[in-house]
Amino acid sequence: MLSGYTVVVGVTGGIAAYKTLDVISKLKKLGAETRVIMTENATKMVAPITFQTISNNPVVVRMFEEPKQWNVEHVALAEAADLFLVCPATANVIGKIYNGIADDFLTTSIMACAAPKLICPAMNHNMYINPIVQKNLEGLRQLGYHILEPDSGRLACGAIGKGRLPEPDRIVQEVVSILVPERDLEGMRILITAGPTREWIDPVRYISNPSTGKMGYALSAAAANRGATVYLVSGPVALEAPPGVTVKQVETTRQMLDACLKFYPESDVVIGAAAPGDFHPEKVSDHKIKKSGDVIELAFRETPDILKTLGQDKANRVLVGFAAETENLVENAVQKARQKNLDFVCANRVGLSDRGFGSDTNVISIVMPDGTHQEVGPAPKYQIAMAILDKVKSIIG
């Protein structure tokens, strides 16, 4: 996806600098060339050799150190950049950039760079909300800089508030949306389900599964970046919804179906990436079930089948399902596609460490009802999402 693009990454002296290693790794998996510039303070957080190893390129720190190539290096890097990413960006470097101070290699390079710039602030909450920092950020926005808002949560200093560097996947998605702004799904309305569901046994216990929602959220981000109107029906997950996506949070499989039926009439495409529970207890106790030393027996009934229900009134929509399998991958996917009136099924083998539930990467087989199939991956889930959307687009024509 990013083959042929060069991302120059400026690393400053924030504790979140270690996360930038993962950002660079993910950019490289998408095909990007990465070049790293570190401030002196950043080298106190992570050794330059670590960034050099991850990026497979020399790391530049000092303005007047011996050049790695025979050129004016800060100008050469600035001209090579298709995007200049500052991650993490401290209050200090944000102030320098906005006020035109170029007293080290990073600030000099960004001043000489005409490519798009993406700033990822990360700092203490009180520093972040300081009017001076906010004024500098707003000034950079007006100058055309892209600013990725930090997350909220517990910070390295122990305080709770806004200032955490966003997770690497979110940063990479922002890079992709800037570099590859093709909005080929404009006008399309896509309904996506994500995450697990919970079926309660008593007020404190439920049955569920290990789904984290990463695949569904990656699909939502990818579809939104390509211009689609996205409705995301999500089970309970610890993920932040992509910008511009309409989200409905649910808990049980019944609630997920009801939410889907609400968005279904105005949807052109449905992608069922969730892992809704297949069974629910026949009776839910009003009180916590106490230990008694006896054998406890629970009776279960099947939950409603979301995709099968939607497939009964398919009309001219495109319906896509997922199948998490441990054996007979293609055969089971074909059966699922035919039974539920789906256009294709994304089948993935679960139980492996590098794919499926909880992993940042995945390998899927796109299986058609006639048994033809193609494998996608291993790749980051965002890249898998792009491939799925490409298939949807090809079906719509």
Arithmetic mean of pLDDT: 89
Mind summarizing the main beta sheet? Answer: 8 strands, mixed
Total strands: 20
Structural class: alpha/beta
What is the tally of helical segments? 13
CATH class of the largest domain: Alpha Beta
CATH topology assignment of the largest domain: Rossmann fold
How big a fraction of the residues is strand?
A: 15-25%
**End-to-end C-alpha gap:** 21 Å
- Overall morphology: globular
Return the CATH architecture of the largest domain.
3-Layer(aba) Sandwich
Physical arrangement of strands within the biggest beta sheet:
13-12-9-14-17-18-19-20
Give the helix level as a range of percent: 25-40%
- Uncertain runs with pLDDT below 50, 5 residues or more? none
Short description:
This protein is α/β, with parallel strands linked by helices. The chain contains 13 helices and 20 strands. The protein has an 8-stranded mixed sheet with strand order 13-12-9-14-17-18-19-20, sandwiched between helices.
Can you walk through the features of this model?
- The chain is α/β, with parallel strands linked by helices.
- It has two domains: 6-179, Rossmann fold; 189-281 and 293-396, Rossmann fold, CATH 3.40.50.
- The chain is built from 13 helices and 20 strands.
- The chain has an eight-stranded mixed β-sheet, with helices on both faces. A six-stranded parallel β-sheet has the order 3-2-1-4-5-6, with helices on both faces. It has a two-stranded antiparallel sheet with strand order 7-8.
